[in-house]
Design a protein that fits this description.
Dihydrodipicolinate Reductase, domain 2; alpha/beta; UDP-n-acetylglucosamine1-carboxyvinyl-transferase, Chain; disordered C terminus; 16 strands
């Protein structure tokens, strides 16, 4: 079978993760060229290398170009297997995004896979670790994904040092159908800060401010968790989870030196209110990340806007032969539809129905 060729110039690390994930699931050899070529610091970064290494270990792959700053990666998988794996990003790079690359393997596992990774859990350019735990995984569980994440230690920028564990079990994915969100049942508030910020009550202030803002908009809000954690660097994060009748939506913000806790909460609350008022079925993070699951399960997904990440991710999926149809509307919203999902290794692709 011919090698799948993907141009990684315009995409970020998501293109690499998508390409290697789909290669592992379909059993096809893939080559990603000009990795992150349009970025100021092109090539593979530590968090991308961690994902490559763990994926390679999970499917006994032959890999070329798995080194820092490499702009070409070739990945030839063998058999996906369960077991126990460990990885270290080596920086404050996102552990959540490393796990994101491994989730599709559930479709072809024949035994549970446990992955422990060290790095950043609540860092920029990525949702905090509570996001996959409270938004993405609960939603995908409704479509057959059997996975969970535990965070043993939080890692803020710049030291990182966080530690989390992904438990992934063999799963039969059902077609995704996310076109309506249903009524808002509640908004859960999850606020976290390093123990060094406990005296300033940073996590409490974030939670209180977010609850007051959302409450003033007559939204059903509940503070679910306020915690102070040991961490190598001081920091804070807040996640707002909107639980609707048929979906979940998340909005988050990170603390910054010199930025009041109330302002951090206001950023997250403003982002959530914008999604709620727009009638979004999924948030922008899920709109991007669910495309891989959609390629494997089939179905239809309503997204709030077509970002560059969405376009480059769709291009990678289509390179594997998946006919992902994008219907854009004048208001910026769109619907993605996959009628015939990709066939997993050794299997046939059922129609999504």
């Amino acid at each position: 079978m011919a090698t799948v060729e993907i141009d990684g110039a315009d995409g970020g690390g998501q293109v690499v993760r998508t390409a290697l994930s789909l290669a592992a699931v379909t059993g096809r050899r893939v080559r990603v060229e000009d990795v992150r070529g349009a970025r100021p610091n092109p090539g593979l970064r530590p968090q991308h290398l961690a994902a490559v290494a763990l994926l390679a270990a999970a499917c006994d792959a032959d890999v070329e170009g798995a080194e820092l700053d490499s702009r070409t990666v070739t990945f030839a998988p063998r058999t996906v297997r369960g077991g126990d794996l460990t990885g270290d990003v080596g920086t404050a790079g996102s552990v959540a995004l490393v796990f994101d690359a491994l989730l599709p393997l559930a479709a072809v596992l024949d035994a549970p896979l446990t992955v422990e990774a060290v790095g950043g859990t609540d860092v920029t350019w990525s949702p905090p670790i509570e996001y996959p735990r409270r938004v993405k995984l609960p939603l995908l569980r409704e479509y057959g994904l059997d996975a969970s994440i535990d965070c043993e230690r939080t890692g803020f920028y710049p030291a990182g040092g966080g530690r989390a564990t992904l438990e992934l079990r063999p799963s039969a994915l059902a077609p995704i159908r996310l076109t309506e969100r249903g009524p808002l049942r509640r908004v859960g508030v999850y606020s976290k800060a390093s123990a060094s910020l406990a005296a300033a009550e940073v996590a409490d202030r974030q939670a209180t401010a977010a609850a007051e803002i959302l409450g003033a908009s007559a939204l059903p809000v509940e503070v679910e968790r306020v915690e102070y954690v040991e961490a190598d660097s001081p920091g804070s994060s807040i996640l707002l989870v909107g639980e609707y009748g048929r979906t979940r939506v998340g909005a988050s913000a990170l603390g910054e030196r010199g930025k009041p806790s109330e302002a951090v909460a206001a950023d997250a609350a403003s982002a959530f209110e914008a999604l709620h008022d727009a009638g979004a079925v999924v948030d922008p993070h899920l709109a991007d990340q669910l495309l891989v699951a959609l390629a494997l399960s089939g179905g239809v997904l309503e997204i709030p806007r077509v970002t560059d990440h969405v376009r480059t991710n769709l291009a990678a999926i289509r390179a594997f032969g998946c006919e992902a149809i994008l219907d854009e509307r004048p208001d910026g919203t769109a619907r993605v539809r996959v009628e015939t999902p990709l066939a997993p290794r050794g299997g046939t692709s059922p129609r999504s129905g």
